[in-house]
Design goal:
The chain is an alpha/beta fold and 821 residues long. It is built from 34 helices and 23 strands.
Length: 821
């Protein structure tokens, strides 16, 4: 009866066409290149649970992706009639849910083929399928019917799930598994080979399910009540009641209120609503979203609790990262949001989208602190993904801010208490070509008071959505396993016991080290864009203007430097070249063109001149070392190579701390030496024996070198201001706070007198960090009265500045310093 298989195929094809009248899929990994398939070996697909609907979806997506057919017989001798199998079959009655996992006969037959024929190798491709993506949030029948969860649905339930969620179906193809590698050690024991295959595939499906759906969630009300009943919160309630003389019932009610204020209430309905809304929003205001290195997250999310740590440049960051993760098959994280965002209506939506709210400061409220710490511990110990910003607030200058230790310390302490679930930090760089809050940042940098978030302020912001803000890049950096950091700091940490209050002596070092790795990891994943490149070069000119052809050529050459000595594998560069980048900046309204007979002039005017410093600062760290080397030749025609390396390595620790450079101080000499070779190879420097020389004045090479030096020169000038003021007062005559204040005032005055369009030039926090590093490096010290003391070593540092700064700059700083006396 040969017609029966054909008739069966026609019926299945009809069913598949009918199913896809309703079903819409989002598919990941379905291509020969993504899977890395060997065309010489047969391919067999595997789906975890037996289901007609899953089979139909598999066949449709394999056909669409032009992969080897799942419907055709497996091309091996004695092989099955189809090139797919289900790992487990359903047991029970027609409408009963599966009770036990029973390996299918098709899986066992495939293993038997591999055992009998040592030359046979089949590529087994696991395929995961989700009808909607939702954590299990409640025990109600409605929720169970409306979500594809960790439980395995019965036939009736599956029908209803498809009916409700069929248009939001997610399919993920996994990397192929080699059958011969699985069965090699069990060729005389096929039963054990079958169990091994089942175990490997079961682990794979579990990892994918956790990454896509997230861990099982308990009901929010249950979570809140559970927090109040934890031993740590109970102790805090008793202590608060005793200290403030308040009845324990009232304190317990306050603790419950705190927990309710904090806890997220993630709703898949809200997430899907936001996905549709945000898709339209991004298409309206952005020219596209580029995602790079997402494979890192897709890999680590299967076995770890992931802590996403993005840079913080805009309120859009919250929404953008969740949107990108969801659209790449990952569960959106629980997001730490400031309590200021818990506004009417908006706060409720954010909470259902995964936000949990925290007060800006709670060190004077031990009860709140304990409740919040316990909430975080629940998140991590249950394997939830979490997102928070180590900078604390949004950067107004475009630079990475100094990390704040609070959330990182909570994460480390939670992990010490319970490290059964590994925690991995994933740095994320979010790069905007035009940040939405740019104009308000300008106002704040000029002294305008920060506007408080409100529904009315949000409505006002929505007016700007008519504008285009260019493209956005979301770059994922290299993962940082928390256990690796702890192993380096305190190798015996696993053998020690920790409770909610214990803070080991080495905790602060671990937090500092981890925070440093995070911020350097973010900077190592930076996305260079046309706006940043144009800003970097134009701002290096005295009059913020340049001939178009020259500007285009300089940008191409500086981009070549980044390619010649890549800062990190995770850094991305823009497509095209200088000419296209200039045209793009024009369309974005950030540069102006002045037609001229000898060649058009490209210039920065008005507010754009200051706004563009924000985009230059995004990528300034990439040019820090070559620019520092170039600065040494600002006032010197030649220097011994050893002197160049030595001076650069002396300054490097201060640049590293300010710009979060990834190289350790002990690596500085080697990296500087490599950069010297790169600059020589690109004609910016020359070698004569053991001396390094700058090009002749008036040459194009000298123009490039001088432009490169200006990328970082203002940072060195700021350092010189602080040193000049300290030397003016004398050793033991001024404390750190006074030096910070005086340096800030002098920098602000110099900025006005000499037309420096860089708001960070007089940023008080940068002076504070520099002074702290002078103390850390023992260049200065503090006496018993808190006054700063120094030795002749500081005079040597000031003397070395003569080699870096031009005569005009040194005289200008000296003049401004004397005016302030």
């Amino acid at each position: 009866m040969r017609f029966l298989p054909g008739l069966s195929g026609l019926i299945l094809t009809l069913f598949r066409k009918l199913l896809y009248l309703w079903v819409r899929t989002d598919v990941k990994g379905a291509s020969p290149d993504a899977l890395g398939l060997n065309p010489a070996k047969p391919v067999c697909y595997v789906v975890q649970y037996s289901s007609m609907s899953s089979r139909l979806v598999l066949e449709q997506e394999v056909e669409r992706a032009q992969l080897p057919s799942a419907q055709a017989p497996l091309p091996v001798h004695g092989g099955p009639d189809h090139s797919f199998f289900f790992l487990y079959k359903r047991t029970g009655g027609l409408f009963r849910r599966r009770q036990t996992s029973v390996l299918t006969s098709q899986a066992q037959e495939l293993v038997q083929l591999g055992v009998e024929d040592p030359t046979l190798d089949v590529q087994i491709v696991p395929v995961s399928l989700f009808w909607g993506r939702s954590p299990d949030k409640a025990k109600s029948l409605v929720k169970l019917l409306l979500s594809d969860t960790w439980t395995v649905a019965g036939r009736l339930q599956k029908f209803l799930i498809i009916l409700v969620h069929g248009r939001n179906t997610y399919v993920q193809f996994g990397k192929p598994l080699s059958l011969s590698q699985v069965v090699d050690e069990y060729r005389d024991r096929p039963d054990q080979a079958s169990r091994k295959l089942a175990r490997i595939l079961r682990t794979h499906f579990r990892r994918v399910r956790q990454a896509v759906l997230g861990p099982d969630l308990s009901h929010r009300r249950t979570l809140v009540e559970g927090l109040v009943r934890t031993p740590a919160v109970k102790d805090a309630i008793r202590e608060t009641a005793r200290k403030d003389d308040i009845p324990p019932e009232k304190v317990r009610a306050k603790a419950r209120k705190y927990a309710d204020e904090i806890a997220a209430s993630m709703s898949i309905v809200t997430i899907r609503f936001l996905e549709v809304l945000l898709s339209r929003l991004w298409n309206r205001i952005y020219n596209g979203i580029t995602v790079n290195n997402i494979e890192v997250v897709q890999s680590v999310a299967q076995d770890n609790a992931v802590v996403y740590v993005p840079c913080h440049r805009s309120h859009i960051d919250y929404l953008l990262l969740s949107y990108v993760l969801y659209n790449n098959g990952l569960m959106p994280p629980h997001i730490a949001a400031g309590i200021n965002l818990n506004m009417p209506v908006v706060g409720s939506i954010l909470r259902r989208g995964g936000a949990f709210f925290m007060r800006r400061s709670f060190k004077d409220n031990p009860l709140y602190s304990t409740v919040f710490n316990e909430y975080m511990h629940v998140m991590f110990s249950r394997g939830y993904s979490v997102e928070y910003f180590v900078e604390g607030g949004r950067s107004r200058t475009g630079r990475m801010l100094q990390p704040r230790p609070g959330m990182v310390a909570m994460t480390v302490r939670s992990y010490l208490r319970d490290h059964n679930k590994p925690i991995v930090f994933v740095p994320v760089y979010i790069g905007y070509e035009k940040v939405m809050e740019g104009r308000s940042y300008l106002g704040e940098l000029r002294g305008k008071k920060k506007q408080k978030e409100s529904v009315f302020a949000l409505a006002k912001t929505l007016k700007s959505l008519r504008n285009s803000f260019g493209r956005v890049a979301v770059n994922f950096g290299s993962a940082i396993p928390l256990s690796d950091v702890l192993d380096d700091i305190h190798p015996s940490w696993r053998r020690e016991a920790y409770d909610s209050e214990y803070r080991p002596a080495w905790l602060s070092q671990a937090v500092e080290t981890l925070s440093s790795k995070i911020v350097t990891g973010i900077n190592a994943a930076v996305a260079v864009n046309p706006i940043g490149m144009t800003a970097t070069v134009l701002l290096s000119t005295e009059r913020l203007a340049m001939d178009e052809i020259q500007l285009s050529r300089l940008m191409d050459q500086f981009a070549d430097l980044l390619r010649a000595f890549p800062y990190a594998e995770t850094v991305t560069l823009p497509e095209g070249g200088g000419k296209e980048w200039i045209a793009y900046c024009e369309t974005m309204g950030l540069v102006s063109r002045q037609p001229q007979a000898l060649g058009d002039i490209i210039a920065l005017e008005g507010n754009n001149a200051i706004l563009m410093t924000y985009y230059r600062n995004n990528i300034q760290h990439l040019f820090a070392l070559p620019s520092l080397i170039a600065c040494l030749f600002e006032n010197n025609s030649s220097l011994a190579r050893e002197k160049v390396v030595f001076l650069s390595s002396v300054v490097y620790p201060y640049l590293q701390s300010e710009l979060f450079l990834q190289y350790q101080p002990e690596q500085a000499e080697q990296v500087v030496d490599q950069w010297i070779d790169v600059l020589v190879n690109h004609g910016l420097l020359q070698t004569h024996g053991d001396r390094i020389c700058r090009p002749e004045d008036g040459t194009e090479s000298m123009l490039r070198l001088r432009a490169l030096s200006h990328f970082i020169i203002q940072t060195l000038e700021r350092y010189h201001i602080a040193i000049a003021i300290l030397r003016k007062y004398g050793s033991g005559k001024i404390n750190a706070t006074e030096l910070e204040e005086q340096s800030t005032l002098m920098a602000e005055r110099m900025s006005i007198l000499f037309g420096l369009n860089a708001p960070e030039f007089f940023d008080k926090s940068l002076f504070r960090n520099f002074i702290a590093n002078l103390q850390k490096n023992e260049v200065i010290s503090t006496d018993e009265n808190g006054q700063l003391c120094y030795t002749e070593g500081l005079d040597e540092v000031a003397e070395d500045a003569r080699l870096v700064l031009s005569v005009e700059k040194r005289q200008a700083i000296q003049q401004v310093t004397m005016l302030g006396a």
